[in-house]
Amino acid sequence: MRWHWQTTFFEHGPDPDNPGWNHWNLKDETLFNNVVMGKLITRVDPDGPNGPRARLRMFPERRHLNLQGIIHGAVTLALIDISLFVTMHTIGSGNAGPSVTLELSTQFVGGGDPTQPMDAVTEIVRETGKLVFVRGLVEQDGNLVASFSGIVRKMQPRP
Fold it and tell me: What is the CATH number of the domain that holds 59?
């Protein structure tokens, strides 16, 4: 019997604390997403200028700050990377499981405010049988933190 990544390793369902949002959790709480990023929630904004957009939100904590008291760039990069897979799952083909980031280009344009939730808002530029091309913005309450584009390669699960 083959495992199914979405039910074996992953939980994605309505978040009771945030109506209209879904939680984005790995079942194993010792893995990166849970340990480093903390609570993540997602939703689809259906009326983006180029079609639906995926939105991944994190809630900054003290552990996410750098010495300047703003959100560390590595945390922003992690949010962006995770958002690529949220995008595949929510508005793409739906199978974000055994996939890998091939390329990620990021431009930091502002500091992240640790008192505000931070969102990665994404859209699919193109999806093929093996690749997904994504672009997006990281924002906080209308303030731009970063812009980015990325390419994800869809992989087949190992037997």
Answer: 3.10.129.10
How far does CA 110 lie from the centroid of its chain?
19
**For 20-25, what is the mean pLDDT?**
92
Cα distance between residue 86 and residue 55, in whole Å: 8
Count H helices and E strands in the chain, helices first: 3, 9
Q: Residue 123 in contact with residue 50, Cβ under 8 Å?
A: yes
Amino acid code (one letter) for 48: G
Tokens of 71: 């959100």
Residue type at 116 in one-letter notation: Q
In the chain, how many domains are there? 1
Provide the 10 A C-beta neighbour count for residue 75: 23
Is 159 within a domain?
A: no
Residue type at 5 in one-letter notation = W
pLDDT at 120 over 80: yes
Assess if residue 96 is contained within a domain.
yes
Domain region containing 46: 5-154
Summarize the confidence of residues 85-113 as an average pLDDT.
90
Q: Is residue 104 assigned to a domain?
A: yes
Rounded-to-integer distance, Cα 142 and Cα 75, Å: 19
Q: Give the model confidence (pLDDT) of 132-147 as tens digits.
A: 999 999 999 999 999 9
Name which of 107, 101, 90 is nearest 42 in CA terms: 90
